[in-house]
Every structure is written in C-alpha cells, then in structure tokens.
Input
Amino acid sequence: GAGVSQSPSNKVTEKGKDVELRCDPISGHTALYWYRQSLGQGLEFLIYFQGNSAPDKSGLPSDRFSAERTGGSVSTLTIQRTQQEDSAVYLCASSLEARGSGANVLTFGAGSRLTVL
Amino acid sequence: GESVGLHLPTLSVQEGDNSIINCAYSNSASDYFIWYKQESGKGPQFIIDIRSNMDKRQGQRVTVLLNKTVKHLSLQIAATQPGDSAVYFCADAGGNAGNMLTFGGGTRLMVKP
Output
C-alpha cells in the first residue's frame, strides 16, 4: 500500500480482555517494528521483524504481549488480559532496510489508541 | 546501553522566528541520526537524517547540526510556521549491527501566531 495502515484506530476495552492490533506495512518492506507511546511520552520499542528471521522480542514488557507476522507482511500485536497500564498508542512502522544497515528510515502508521477501562 | 534524550520538553516560538530543538545521545559509536515530526493524532514522520561523517545537513527550511565531540545534535527550523507545531523526536539508527531506533521523550514545539 501507499503507507503503513493500522487498525483499529481506537480501541476501548475492559480490564482483563484480550485485544488484537493489526498492522499492514508498506508493500516490499521487509522490516516491521512495533512501538508503544504512552501519553506525552517517547516511543518504547516492543518488537522487530526482519524477513524470515526470528523476531527480536526484547522490548515486550510482559508475556501478556505477543506479536506475529504472517507471510512476511501483515502483523498482529496481541495483548492478553489487558491492564490499565497497557493504555497507550501502539505504533507500527516498516522499513525497506534492515535494522543496523545505517540507512534505517522507518515509515510509521497513525497508530492504534488503546484505552483499558 | 544507548540513550537519546532531549534537553527541553516544550519550546514556544513566535511565528516567523527560527526554532532550535536539541538532542543529546550517549553512544559514541552512533553513526546515523534521524529527526521525526509527530503531529497530533498521527504517527511520526521523517524530516531529515544525517550521517556521522557530516556535521551539517540542510533540507527545506530545516537544518540538522551534529557535534560528535559532545554527542549533540540539533534541528533548526527557519521561519517557523503554525504547521510546524508538533512533537519532534531525534532517533539513533546507526552504530552496532542490530541496533534499534531509540527515541527520546520528544520536544513539543508550539508556534504562537
């Protein structure tokens, strides 16, 4: 597609429920990232996918968080048993270049705003 | 570990004035930096980048300066316009293989008419 698409744009859920957030990266971009942005804060790295390699999950805050990327394209971030502190904007980004290539410009989606009541 | 931080959380400037947003980094091996602009309700957008073999790079109304000696970079916006109001992040994308983008807390630029 022309840009990185994320859905839903807004999600309100009750504490303890599971949520799934979807990211559709730019066609041809092999690298995909998930970041979390709490209100008024910077971007917190969550997970990185590169081609068919094992993902870098080092940023996931707990085992309630997981992500997958099917067919090297669409990615889904799943948060199980949501807590109020999970409330944030979840940003997805994709890049043509692999991380560490030295020309790693990310294109971000508009984000999915999650509110846990 | 590497950290990227910003000196000022909020910067208020008069329309037409120049803006300077600062950023410090800690990883001396960092060799590539990016500035992003994030408008309300949107994801960050690429503004300009610079490699460590340069100390200055200019774009349209924006200039990035890199001082490797003190590990500091700045974003200068000329003739600031209301549309420049946003949060600006610097990010370190270079250095060691496998390095991830690390963002600071951001600086909010407010342009007064």
Q: What stands out?
A: Chain A has a mean pLDDT of 91. The first strand of chain A starts at residue 5 and ends at 7.
